[in-house]
């Protein structure tokens, strides 16, 4: 999970936790707010009634012969009453009270206030039913909950957007420095623009490390080139001298056999050096991959190349690619070596009169193309399969011409072309190598 996703998820969960906490506290808060709102409304109505009394007199409410006045609205949600009382302590309270209205007991929030007017004491009561207060409370709670939900959503989206903006240099560093950076000479050492000190320090550290790797790679390539020249040149000279010695008619038969053995050793050394140099060059991405290759044409070329060996061992090679498949962004020489090594392996470890099949078919839809090299040879022991592609691992073979590098080269070529290679084998029945080519063009990164 990405860092930005984790951060946004944490923020969202923390806000949800806060929201749940508020939901628990909200009823108490909303109840208190509704009560305060009601008390404030009752106080405002009291002031309004008192102003009306001072302006028009008490007779607007209590006419001659009456001692009280009462008025309830149609739904009994509010009432106002005014009555004469005997002189006593000052009354100015707001409290809950029950009142009987038309044979129905209703719970009210009642403001009681005593005052004197024209030498007479009066008690003013203004009430509002607690049912209407509860409705106000529910409205408060509902709207507050909606606002909280919107706030959580907006702040989470804002955090996600800001965090992505904040981490943009970090992802740029990953793309330019760590991902698709397999070939040191192609390293991008341009600094990534950022105002964040931590990212700037990370970018500088990675650029320094990549510059060091680049310098080491350059030295290694030079060493490989020099080593190949220094090793292959004296071996070629030895080979030339041995050829001259064999041309000497005075050389005894015993010495001739020794020279031939020495030639085999030189040839073995030259082959090993060339194979190791090829692996090194492939791993260092020193082969261009800009060609487009038809697999059917490539397999036909490999088949023609090995015809002499097939005839000597009385083997039959059959290839069927239905349909053909075109590999883009590849190196034809390397792909030829890949298929040739697998076919050569099938020839080397086959039985006399055996068969070799090279079969091509589409993989599952959208998954590319599968090229299979199958033989009817002796098979490979199950315990040997995990080490099959290791360098210099010859398994149980006693073939003196086997160096344990052919399959290692095949794996290296497959990896650099993003080709999956799989081997299946049954002892006594044969071996099958499966090459799965990607569906789209090969990504040179």
The gist of it:
The protein has 445 residues and is an alpha+beta fold. Helix content is 51%, strand content 21%. The chain has helices at residues 3-56, 130-178, 197-246, 253-283, 295-305, 307-312, 332-348, 406-416; strands spanning 68-72, 78-85, 92-101, 104-117, 120-129, 291-294, 316-321, 326-330, 355-362, 369-375, 420-426, 430-437.
Residues in helix, %:
40-55%
Oligomer: single chain
Please state the CA-atom Rg, rounded to the nearest Å. 47 Å
Biggest sheet record: 5 strands, antiparallel
Q: What separation lies between the terminal Cα atoms? A: 23 Å
- Overall average pLDDT: 80
Shape summary: rod-shaped
- Largest sheet: spatial strand order: 1-2-5-4-3
Structural class: alpha+beta
The total of helices stands at 8
Number of strands: 12
Give the topology string: H per helix, E per strand.
Answer: HEEEEEHHHEHHEEHEEHEE
Low-confidence stretches: none
Give the DSSP E fraction (strand runs of 2 or more residues). Answer: 15-25%
């Amino acid at each position: 999970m990405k860092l930005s996703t984790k951060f946004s998820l944490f923020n969202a969960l923390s806000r949800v936790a806060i929201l749940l906490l508020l939901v628990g506290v909200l009823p108490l808060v909303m109840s208190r707010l509704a009560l305060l709102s009601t008390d404030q409304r009752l106080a405002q109505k009291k002031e309004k009634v008192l102003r009306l009394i001072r302006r028009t007199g008490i007779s607007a409410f209590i006419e001659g012969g009456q001692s009280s006045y009462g008025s309830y609205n149609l739904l009994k949600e509010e009432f106002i009453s005014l009555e004469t009382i005997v002189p006593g302590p000052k009354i100015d309270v707001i409290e809950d009270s029950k009142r009987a209205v038309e044979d129905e007991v209703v719970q009210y929030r009642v403001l009681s206030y005593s005052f004197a007017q024209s030498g007479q004491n009066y008690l003013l009561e203004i009430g509002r039913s607690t049912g209407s207060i509860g409705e106000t409370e529910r409205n408060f709670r509902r709207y507050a909950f909606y606002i909280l939900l919107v706030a959580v959503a907006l702040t989470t989206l804002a955090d996600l957007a800001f965090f992505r903006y904040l981490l943009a240099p970090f992802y740029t560093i990953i793309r330019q420095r760590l991902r698709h950076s397999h070939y040191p000479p192609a390293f991008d050492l341009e600094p990534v623009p950022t105002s964040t000190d931590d990212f700037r320090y990370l970018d500088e550290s990675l650029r320094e490390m990549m510059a060091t790797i680049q310098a080491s790679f350059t030295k290694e390539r030079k060493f490989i080139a020099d080593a190949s020249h220094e090793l292959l040149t004296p071996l070629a000279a030895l080979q030339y001298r041995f050829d001259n010695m064999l041309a000497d008619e005075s050389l005894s038969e015993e010495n001739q056999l020794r020279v031939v053995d020495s030639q085999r050793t030189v040839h073995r050394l030259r082959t090993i050096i060339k194979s190791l140099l090829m692996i090194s060059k492939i791993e260092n991405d020193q082969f261009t991959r800009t060609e487009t290759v038809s697999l059917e044409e490539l397999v036909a070329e490999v088949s023609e190349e090995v015809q002499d060996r097939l005839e000597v061992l009385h083997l039959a090679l059959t290839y069927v690619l239905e349909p053909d498949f075109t590999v883009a962004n590849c190196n034809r020489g390397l792909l030829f070596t890949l298929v040739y090594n697998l076919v050569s392996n099938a020839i080397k470890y086959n039985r006399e009169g055996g068969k070799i099949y090279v079969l091509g078919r589409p993989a599952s839809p959208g998954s590319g193309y599968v090229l299979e090299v199958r033989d009817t040879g002796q098979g490979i022991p199950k315990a040997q399969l995990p080490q099959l592609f290791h360098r210099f691992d010859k398994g149980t073979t006693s073939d003196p011409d086997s160096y344990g590098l052919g399959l290692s080269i095949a794996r290296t070529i497959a990896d650099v072309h993003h080709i999956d290679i799989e081997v299946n084998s049954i002892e006594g029945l044969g071996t099958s190598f499966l090459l799965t080519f990607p569906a789209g063009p090969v990504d040179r990164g």
